[in-house]
Amino acid sequence: MLIPTRDNGYIHPCAGEITPRAVYEQRRAMLRLLAAGAGGAAMAGWAGRVALADQVRRPGRLAPLPGAPSAVPGAVTMEKVTEYQDATTYNNFYEFGTDKSDPARNAHTLKTRPWTVEVEGLVNKPRRFDIDELLKLSAQEDRIYRLRCVEGWSMVIPWVGYSLAELIKRVEPQGSAKYVEFVTLADKATMPYVGSHVLDWPYTEGLRLDEAMHPLTLLAFGMYGEVLPNQNGAPVRIVVPWKYGFKSAKSIVKIRFVEKEPGTAWNKAARQEYGFYSNVNPDVDHPRWSQATERRIGEGGLFAKKRKTLLFNGYEAQVGQLYAGMDLRKFY
Ligand code: MTE
């Protein structure tokens, strides 16, 4: 029987669990570490592991979404995970307002069921997926990614999801499909800023097909071991860890395979400032500010020492070959 209990001030139905929660969470984090580190060779010592085990705790606010440890190279960073409170209250989700605190305040109106994702365009097997079917299409994995926003801040977030490639393989893209476009929900009834002139709605994004097929490109359904909070893009979003955060489209309803580079929300809004590629690159400044450093959210506020931004957000070993021979100043 599930009895509601209080933990961290939030009610959750896990009193029926036989394994005490702290033990379960510790065990889960250890398994993740062992698998993700391919034996732990490149990992910090025991203290580091215990510290990480501490960080990936489920906050106990939303439904659990367990993931298996990811074996994808680069899928787990050992950096300190951002506090759940920060990751869920300092957001960009313009459909709910332009202030960082607006999404957490306003996104409760988003209805995440029923929800479907239409996969269409240049594929042999176009399909409409019900969200619960999409959730189970492949095994859910835990991944810990750095997220670098174009505005100069960054976070470290434990996501739950699977490689977008798993879905792409199933719909069989045709030879002429060169790009993937992501279309997100634009519902005036539940999203107060849709209809405003801030952006051209719906918010759309795009990737080259080989970028979309890269195993690090994640179709995310959860974070911190639970389903996504609305303000973070429920019920399903993309996460592309080596690109600026705006490439990671939230609350997607359509995935379209196309031949030509698709327009994207920010590219349409300010072409000279936001290119299609938008790879994190400390050497290519935004026209109005430097991209050389970043402020990690949760690290001592405005007066904290900034970190150096890394090429491809530190994922160069994994994704650098996608851009071999390209002029990254031209294709920014
Ligand atoms: N997706 C939609 N649909 N609408 C948005 O406004 N903002 C983007 C991206 N995805 C946005 C979106 C930006 S600018 C960033 S930095 C990330 O979402 C932020 O994701 P987070 O709130 O989970 O950190």
TrEMBL record:
GO terms for biological process, alphabetical: protein repair
Chief place where the protein resides: periplasm
Keyword Cell division: no
Coiled coil regions in record: none
Domain Oxidoreductase molybdopterin-binding: 111-266
PTM per Swiss-Prot/TrEMBL: Predicted to be exported by the Tat system. The position of the signal peptide cleavage has not been experimentally proven.
The protein's required cofactors: Mo-molybdopterin
Cofactor note as given: Binds 1 Mo-molybdopterin (Mo-MPT) cofactor per subunit.
Binding site for Mo-molybdopterin: N91, Y94, E95, C149, T184, N232, R237, S248, A249, K250
Record flagged with keyword Signal: yes
Subunit structure: Heterodimer of a catalytic subunit (MsrP) and a heme-binding subunit (MsrQ).
Protein name, entry field: Protein-methionine-sulfoxide reductase catalytic subunit MsrP
Species: Acidovorax ebreus (strain TPSY)
